[in-house]
Amino acid sequence: ESTRVMGLLTSGVLVAAVCCILGEAIVFDSNSFFLTNYYYKQSRLALPSSLDLVSYEGNYYEDQLWFLKPSGRGDGCYYLENDYRPQYRIANQNKEEVFAYNGNHYNDQLWRFEPGKGGAYYIVNCAYPQRRLANWQRKKIIAYNGNKYDDQLWILESRLTAEIVSTTVKHIDNLQGPTPIPIEVTITEGFKKSETNSATMTQRYRLAMEASIGVEIGMVSASASISAEFANTIERFSSITTETYWEKTETITYTVPAHRNWKIMQHQVRLHSKIPSDRAVMYAFSKIFVSKTGTFTDNTGWIVNSS
Fold first, then answer.
1. Per residue in 196-211, pLDDT tens?
2. Predicted TM-score of the model (pTM)
3. Which of 45, 117, 136, 164 has the fewest CB atoms in 10 Å of its CB?
């Protein structure tokens, strides 16, 4: 897993795993998505407790998330596994029938994504390439082998999207001060979820987090050292299953020199999701800036912010 983290975060993309549509990068491999129909824009593919594939238009839940597991053959085909019920995969055995299957793996459970219009995709069965996943009359999910229509197009919405910010933790202007100033600064590193009562750190959540940060690293053109910083933070904290240890806070004493402008900044990644319990903030490394003037210079490009 650490290799995948560094591959995503150091380069911003994995060539075999990423597609760009309308200027936006999407990491397909081992990532989770809401599959929203292009024609019926409120309809998402879901697997409720009935285990029937349905088109759902209500609130966002985890049973609407689909994990793209590569076939392992390098052919661009994926098993579409439900995130909430991970033993179930979308299968197409007989003509139009599409269903959730939890038995052995067969080729009719493999699907590929062919670009359509408006950033949407046709989801094509790899065993029967003439069949495409469709939302028939907003009621039933089928595999259709006729002409192409917009109800066969699907928009992939990532489980998580990352926003990188460089925040000021503490700023002391001591330009007019004749003596140094001792100060205490409290720094947090690690992860904090927005809803602690339901917080979990599953493997699939970590994979979605890595993918979203990797994409954003590429979009803001961050340096390799910053990419490694984020990868290091993920490795240190996301492998811990007990929420108590997802973050570490410590108070450090610093001295602001006389006649200097001083601040300490920190990289943060804000993880956004349509599922409230998925939302989180990752607190990464911090850096001190010192200046003889009212402004600060960032010669290394350490300060990055999502546009």
1. 545 567 889 989 999 9
2. 0.86
3. 117
